[in-house]
Fold ADP-ribose pyrophosphatase.
Amino acid sequence: MSIYKTEEEFLKHYDSSAFEKLSMTSDILLISVSSEEKENYRKTDKKMMSILLVKRTDFPYKDKWCLPGGFLNPKTETLEECAKRVLKSETNLSDIYLEQLYTYDAINRDPRLRVVSTSYIALVDKNRLSKDLNPNASWFDITLIEEKDGVVDIILDNKTEVLHLQIKKTLREKTTDRYQFSTKKNTLAFDHDLVVLSGIERIKNKLNYTDIVFNMMPEYFTLGELQNVYEVILGKKLLAPAFRRIIKDKVQKTNKQTSGDGHRPSTLFKYKRNI
């Protein structure tokens, strides 16, 4: 039975040192789509999914690449507000699509102290971003190679450095999480290898039943460009007639056309928001 008569009295005498403290971070998997230089000017630009990484300048994991992130200020912000602050500092934008992914709480994930990380997916049209990045930041194109026994190789390439991530994907039973991931080869700092694959899996799974892809598209686009982005994310080719049936209620034809790209003008479409 409590010795206190009111909650105010209880809180006044509460000893917060009775429990261990921990720190929390928000880490951001910022995903965009970039265009490779095309060998044939008559073809649509080849798209690549890319993520933003930051090279650490101090210990722990000095000189390792990691996802953008920051420590939560527990007195002034929520985890989502922390994530938005990090995004603003990296992109100078405040209206980017943001979705919570997972919470990572392995006991020794940070060698400094107990740190629990909540990861977020952020999606952006790269045309909105300034080309002047944080000097320690770089965009890496992603290539996924599914291998036998559930081992996934992820190749990250920023044209000057190539990173290889290797992750084991294990099917779970009787759980809301379809897969569990374990690092086979830890390349990024902390457990950010796992965040990358988890985030990509989330985007792939949501592609067919949400309009999430349009957060990475410019205002106007051709159907060929949109199909290319779908194919990049899904990792497979799509038949044009079937694809157009899938997206017919999601796009709106405009009176605009492409110009100056070396081939017959194509009709431009835009996202049709269904409220």
